[in-house]
Design a protein that fits this description.
Helicase, Ruva Protein, domain 3, binds adenosine-5'-diphosphate
Amino acid sequence: MGKSEGGARRERMEEKAERPAGREAMARERVLGGAGSAAGSAAGSGGAVGSRFSGTDEESRRRDAALRPKWLREVIGQRKVAERLAVAVAAAKKLGEPLGHILFDGPPGLGKTTFATVLPNELGTSIQMTSGPALSKPADLLPFLTNLEEGAILFIDEIHRLPRVVEEFLYPAMEDYRIDIVLGEGVHARTITMRLKRFTLIGATTRSGLLSGPMRDRFKMHEHLEFYSVEELAQIIRVNAAKLHTPITPEAAEELARRSRGTPRIANARLYWARSYAAARHEGVITADIARAALDMAEVDPEGLDKNDRRYLETLIELFGGGPTGVEALAATLNLAADTLADEIEPYLLREQYIIRSPRGRIATPRAWRALGKLPPATPSSPPSSPPPSASPPTLFDPS
Ligand code: ADP
């Protein structure tokens, strides 16, 4: 993405054709700098991850953009988060104040960018998008900050990857809507202060733990996104199938949902794949049988684990005897970045209790052994020799 390097070069995205006029006007989405990574970062931090979403970053990004809800009422699931945001939006509108800065955190593909892009529509304002890795120095941030109109939104994806100097440059902008620019060097250096329009910073991170304390404290709202239930994902799949003019049975939507790792972005990828499969091999309708056959062909197993998940579990179990094993050793063996494991693969395996994290490293649970068709080893907590409580030796007081 040559055009998305740095912050200086800029590109105005065509305004969406369906944008209604007036107060309800769809927010102008001016995409600057690392905007691409904002939408598609989740699919991007490792070669193997592309295959998880069964496509390239570019494809995944296109899918995301085409299917992303535009209004809060279209967002499915995450009800508590959506309700709090609706309150914040209503308050901002009534009080005539910009929305407070918001931090979204959670694994990739759960809707951080979706929430960020829905909010300007609700507020009738514009959004500029960039990402932590695209901002290597304070100057990269300048065009974003100076272009912001009153009440507009600046979205920084992967905000935990902002270099410290850029982060510190942001503090006064977040607190007082001003930036301090140092001109010259050494004894001749002088600082000029520039006032900014009142704006809202929305940060997204898969690792809120890596964010510095001062940065975290400057966000007024901190929203954690959770994995979705099968019902919620099935609803997302049905809605998106309709957007793609693809007929799908409710059973098929549920089958795809059950095998989507609790993640809307993966549900979208599964839907696209099942749609292609149905079009190529059948009449285009996605039935439960077609959904199953499509996912089997994509090597997504009945529990929804994909190739990367199984490689991870196979390595942990077959090579490391089920652990405990450090994430670095696992990553080196799998030839993936440790970050990719921690951000993309492990959160779901942890949530579904295929693995547990201990101070000494990752441990495969009996569920993981069984998922690979293996017998779990006897655990130390239930040694086969320990007699069940009912079989304790008789005492003098037991009835004979
Ligand atoms: P993140 O920024 O957390 O990586 P995104 O917001 O890009 O995730 O979500 C990926 C895609 O998943 C979106 O384009 C959208 O189609 C879908 N999606 C995510 N969250 C929701 C939701 N709550 N309701 C409906 N679709 C969603």
